């Protein structure tokens, strides 16, 4: 529509100035590219090649909502990450099983987290999504402390308890009523975690409490924990549950759900996060750079239906 970038920018500034900041979001980048952070291979993974992996379900999750994915490998230099940061429109920190204080995964997550804080402070919109381990990683990055506690939530599907913060949250304010009803009454969110952020520790830690708003909670019967949160002042979102599993993972065990409502919840969250990434104007310097970075350059490995991840990407 707007061929001249400058004319577009001037027009956007004029519309924003005229109608107020609420209208600024209409200038969507409809070709978003989202980085998914790789992590150290599991020792128990006999198909593993190289040193790191990304479960393909996280890639499909984002692709299902209109984004393309770039893998972020864990052994690159800070300078390379900085360059990548200004080329992509968001970051997804996936689930997994690494040390969230001392891994390479953590080193890279911290670099992007700090770049994202700085960018957002300068009105350069850059969203982050954390799932499960990604949620936990964000709590460590924000508080500089591991506040997690063990819970009995290793393989169980739960309904979400929506708190008062959910209603006017960015993540849930536009959720269809019937989907909200399903999420709050059916056992459709997959929990595969041993560690959780208890409401007690959330409330006692000033840094966490000031930074994030609790949207939903859950309990293992003994401890109540945060299951969904979003940052007040940053487009950072975290779910302790796994929206990507329902449509894209097929291991048959307790906690796995393929109900239509679970799949709708997956697409709702993916679509929400991708719409956030569409507000970022970052781009690769050239189309060739973009092509070289995209995940299409890698071939996922089929690990079988009894694997916790049905397909993985592996990286040197
Ligand atoms: C990361 O690993 C790859 C493959 O082993 C290697 O080619 C590359 O130089 C490494 N990069 C850094 C920054 O260590
Ligand atoms: C609170 O966090 C500490 C670590 O800072 C942890 O040892 C403790 O188990 C946590 N307690 C609860 C109830 O979450
Ligand atoms: C949901 O899960 C809980 C705890 O596992 C169980 O007690 C309850 O019966 C389940 N509800 C449904 C509708 O399956």
From TrEMBL:
One of its GO terms (molecular function) is gamma-glutamyl-peptidase activity. The active site is at 132 (nucleophile), 242, 242 (proton donor). It is found in: Secreted, Extracellular space. SUPFAM superfamilies: Class I glutamine amidotransferase-like. Pfam families: Peptidase_C26. The keyword Signal applies. InterPro entries: Class_I_gatase-like, Pept_C26_g-glut_hydrolase, Peptidase_C26. It catalyses: (6S)-5,6,7,8-tetrahydrofolyl-(gamma-L-Glu)(n) + (n-1) H2O = (6S)-5,6,7,8-tetrahydrofolate + (n-1) L-glutamate. Its EC number is 3.4.19.9. This is folate gamma-glutamyl hydrolase. It comes from Silurus meridionalis.
């Amino acid at each position: 529509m707007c061929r001249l970038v400058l004319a577009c920018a001037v027009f956007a500034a004029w519309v924003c100035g005229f109608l107020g900041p609420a209208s600024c979001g209409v200038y969507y980048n409809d070709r978003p590219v989202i980085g998914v952070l790789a992590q150290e291979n599991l020792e128990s993974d006999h198909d593993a090649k190289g040193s790191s992996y990304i479960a393909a379900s996280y890639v499909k999750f984002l692709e299902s909502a209109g984004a393309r994915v770039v893998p972020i490998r864990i052994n690159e230099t800070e300078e390379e990450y900085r360059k990548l940061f200004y080329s992509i429109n968001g970051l997804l920190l996936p689930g997994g099983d690494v040390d969230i204080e001392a891994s390479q995964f953590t080193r890279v997550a911290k670099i992007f987290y700090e770049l994202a804080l700085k960018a957002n402070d300068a009105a350069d919109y850059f969203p982050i999504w954390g799932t499960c381990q990604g949620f936990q990683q964000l709590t460590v990055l924000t508080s500089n402390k591991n506040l997690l506690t063990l819970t009995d939530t290793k393989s169980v599907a739960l309904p979400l308890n929506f708190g008062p913060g959910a209603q006017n949250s960015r993540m849930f304010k536009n959720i269809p009523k019937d989907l909200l009803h399903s999420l709050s009454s059916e056992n459709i969110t997959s929990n595969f975690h041993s560690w959780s952020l208890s409401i007690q520790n959330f409330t006692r830690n000033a840094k966490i409490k000031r930074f994030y708003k609790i949207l939903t909670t859950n309990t293992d019967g003994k401890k109540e924990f945060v299951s969904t949160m979003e940052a007040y002042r940053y487009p950072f979102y975290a779910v302790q549950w796994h929206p990507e599993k329902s449509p894209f993972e097929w291991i048959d065990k307790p906690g796995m759900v393929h109900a239509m409502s679970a799949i709708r919840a997956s697409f709702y969250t993916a679509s929400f996060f991708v719409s956030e990434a569409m507000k970022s104007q970052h781009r690769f310097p050239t189309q060739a750079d973009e092509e070289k970075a995209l995940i299409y350059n890698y071939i996922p490995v089929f690990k079988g239906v009894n694997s916790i991840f049905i397909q993985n990407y592996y990286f040197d």
